[in-house]
Amino acid sequence: MTALPFDGLFRPLGRAAAMGLDALPGVAEGWRMAAIRGLADHLAGRFAAIAAPLVFQLFETRRPPLPAAALLLDRPPAGTSSAAHDAFIAGLIAGGWQAVCARHPVLASRLDRVAADGRAAAADLLRAFAADRDRLAPLTGPAPDITNITFGLSDPHGHGRGVARVDLADGRALAFKPRGLAPEAGFFALLGWLEERMSAGQRHRLPPQHCPAVIDCGSHGWMAWVERPPVPIRRRWRPSTAAWAGLQRCSTCSAPMTCIPTI
Fold this sequence. Notes:
Lant_dehyd, 7 strands
């Protein structure tokens, strides 16, 4: 689970919004609960991306000043009290957030729209899974069951819809795309057609081509999930922007600039 700014506020808001996903005909309750869990995480992240700057401005006026050295760190220095932060979040949860939304109606409307779009997208996925369950047998085996859904794996389009990962009870996973997959199906068929006409020597000179199974359903599609291989990370050294800012604010500092490793 990705850490969010003001996690104690946006996680509960995400869960509350996701719980509005209604039961659907033909959709098992276990699938709906898996969608609610995944949607709660997704909406919490969307809410944080939209509202965290405003929440930070509100908190900035209430928190005690931090030492200049804190700007050099990604986390608060050891021993720093979180009492002000915790009290601030508790106040928002206890009713302060409703007051914030009342003072910022455009923000409130946008968050409501994001939540409604998220629930609609989740409902579309569940209805598609129920309708396509028999067609998915080549990818999943008979009668697949959903255990987890991860939303928001692409840029949002069409009122917040995007790629989702659907994990199944047998350990397999599917990619759900809210658009037809005819281009992918056609391209993979072309690769297969070319490979059939290659000699063994030609195949040896080319990198292996992996074509995941694709099911195009017109308005949406399913694809066997492809795990991305790990990419080695090269460590580089450069002055940290936060370090520069910290040194500029610390007028008494005479130590030479140090380089902080970043990734």
